[in-house]
Amino acid sequence: MPISFNQSVIEEFRAGAGKVGGPFEGGDLLLLTTTGARSGAPHTTPLGYVRHGGLLLVVGSNLGAPAHPDWYHNLLAHPVVRVELGTEEFEAVAVPAEGARRDRLFAHVTRAAPGYADYQERTSRRLPVVALERSGHPDAGGAREIVTLADKLLEVHTWLRAQLKHVLAETDAHLAAVAAHRGPDAPPAPGLGMQIRQHCLAFCGALTFHHTSEDAHVFPALAEHHPRLRDALDRLREEHRTVARIKDGILALLRDAGAADPVRFRAELGRMVAELTAHLDHEEGWVLPVLASVPFPAGRGGAA
């Protein structure tokens, strides 16, 4: 069965360290892998891109068709994407630009690649401009050497703390900007914006994966080999449930981020900071000493 045009480009890209021929020859091309909004399956799409500072910009042109491309709907549901750029591969958070920022970025894109202006003229929809921001997720690899499971756990915890702090700072900046625009006594306007939404969804997804993995794999193994930790592990599981309830409340607000109450959202983030920080501190105090003797990845020759 013949392969699709997109698949042939993907295979050529990977075989040629990012270089392809045909209509993309000599152009700036990346591979974007998104998670299906409904299927949850990975989907890889070759896309042209334009650099803007440290960002990579991609445009949901769909060749000027009346509907947004599937990959755009996917990243709205799952903001963490995989980017292949030449021989480099990394995770990123995909953030659609809004308002005046979108217009500035689209103007930048069309100066570098005028064809996108033609696509915009073909359709009445506003072509989305998406900034791909390197996520710094621990699974994407980092400079710090990881030799034990304790190292890996601490790396993930450090990332979670940093991402939550980042979302909190974005939310505070948003509230301050709204107050400055509307006056100190006016109630905040509804809405959170795509920057907050995408970063918070990425954080919530990573938190869910981390706690689910601990409940299913790490904690049962620890309870079996270290019975003295069972009471502590039961408490950590209960803390997981408390954090999950707060997270579910945050996700409910994000379902309609454009109409969400930013003050309520900020309050829920504050609850998350308090509960998650305490939980991570407890977990590190109880399990890091034990995990320091477990090589990572499994099968590695001895712990440092």
Automatic annotation (TrEMBL):
One of its GO terms (cellular component) is plasma membrane. Coiled coil: none annotated. CDD domains: Hr-like. It comes from the Bacteria. It catalyses: oxidized coenzyme F420-(gamma-L-Glu)(n) + a quinol + H(+) = reduced coenzyme F420-(gamma-L-Glu)(n) + a quinone. Residues 149-291 form the Hemerythrin-like domain. One of its GO terms (molecular function) is oxidoreductase activity. Signal peptide: none annotated. InterPro entries: F420H2_quin_Rdtase, Hemerythrin-like, Split_barrel_FMN-bd. NCBIfam families: hi_GC_TIGR00026. Belongs to the F420H(2)-dependent quinone reductase family. This is Cation-binding protein. It comes from Streptomyces eurocidicus.
